[in-house]
Amino acid sequence: MARKTVKKTVKKTAKKKATKSAAKKMAPRKAAKKTAPHQSAKPRPPKGPVWQWSAVETAAAIRTGAISSVEVVEVHLARMRAVNPKLNAVVVDLSEEALKAAKAADGAAARRNPGLLHGVPITIKENVDYEGRPNPNGVPAQMSIMAPSDAPVVRNLKKSGAVVIGLTNTPEFSFRGFTDNPLHGLTLNPWDPEITCGGSSGGAGAAVAAGIGTIAHGNDIGGSLRWPAHCNGIATIKPTQGRIPAYNESAAAERPMLAHLMSAQGPLARGVDDLRVALEVMSARDPRDPWWVPAPLTGPKPKGPIKVALAKLPDDMDVDPSVHAALRAAADHLERSGYRVSEVEVPDINGVWHTWCDIITNETVTLQEAAMLKVASEDFHIAWNGIKGSANTLDLAGWMRATAARNGHIRAWQLFFEEYPVVLAPTTVKPTPGPREDAISGERAREIFWNDLRFISAINVLGLPSAVVPVALHAGKPIGVQLIAGRYREDLALDAAAAIEKRAGMLVRQLWERMG
Q1: Which CATH number covers residue 450?
Q2: Confidence (pLDDT) at 40
Q3: In a domain, 43, yes or no
Q4: Cis before residue 200, ω within 30 degrees of 0?
Q5: Active site residues
Q6: Domain span at residue 473?
Q7: Per residue in 73-126, pLDDT tens?
Q8: Is residue 260 situated within a structural domain?
Q9: What value, to the nearest 5°, has the Cα angle with vertex 403 and ends 401 and 407?
């Protein structure tokens, strides 16, 4: 009897195990049947009009099949047709080429291995080479200069899958902070036609603020990314020199060494998340730039809380109360986000600015001035003479001393960042001026660059990364602040900008409500 009982027990146990095993095998099939309808449903696109989506949202929506690249590009082209005639931000319409690229992006082969900006519409500033097109740099006499190849930044953006819908306006020789030229005319600020859209990436700033493209390419040798970002209420990052490769095959001669070391390519966008993606894409290696550096995009996090230096403004600066208020608001946003902000004096901002002005002016006078003035407008002559009048004329020994002084300034700032990893500073210390303010007189041009924009241009000679993020509106016009970090620490500048953006909000949404 005992043996029979044992046999029955073994059989029952084996039967139960078999039943449980079968149940486990069946469970995934049943679950799959229940979830299949949900999995086959088309992904939901982001909320709001397509042209208001961020680049990150747009790329994700295309990647998941919520929308096609052709649909996205068609919406942005329609937006361009609706608002650009008034703004004159995009001066070369690439609609036909863009739609072909979008169709290619929607092809099965392209979708298998999409880039970070696959199918996403962007704009390019018309002062870098775009294969098969003129690179006039705002000068009618240079319309015959044809680009035999794409500049590195254009090539990198295209490799990421981005779709270029147009080229944006820039002043003559990209040498003014106000976007106007005899070739394409004046670009207006979408917030208010009575104030400048900035320069020299003014067309880029106005376009992306108005909803034409999700990201705009620009460049910066004296503030040409950060000033338009401030004027148009958008965000930007001027990278460390060497972060993003640069080269124009169409150029008749190589750029002077210090001009190259003080300039940077970079993105303008509505929000900081888009800047991070654009920076990563633009930073890919190109062997044509001998100064490109394969530096990591993120570095070690400083011990918290991160100390931020709110830059003391020099006593000789004429500062508008609205700027003090914006800086204080930005400091409050950072403190509430866990940063520790202290108002301190930064290393010799006046000496740094004069070094920038002396170097860029003397290089230009020696190698470019005569050729430029032969074909430039009267407005250019006035604005250029204003900048030139602020500089010291240098002989060879003076030039060598100026370049040596640059090394000392960079060292002083790098040591400063050891204690304060981020500097909070103004973009301009005055309300945004009119659209042709620098052409009023040489004296007015000098005042703008020395008094108003001192904290912008000075940073170029240091080669430091600097982000700009909008903080508030004053009299209906945007005000931004600048976040400066150590060499190749764009991540720290962008993190601080993101903390401000999170609390201040995205100001362009208010612009879009006005524009409709």
Answers
A1: 3.90.1300.10
A2: 57
A3: no
A4: yes
A5: 125, 200, 224
A6: 50-515
A7: 999 999 999 999 999 999 999 999 999 999 999 998 778 889 999 999 999 999
A8: yes
A9: 110
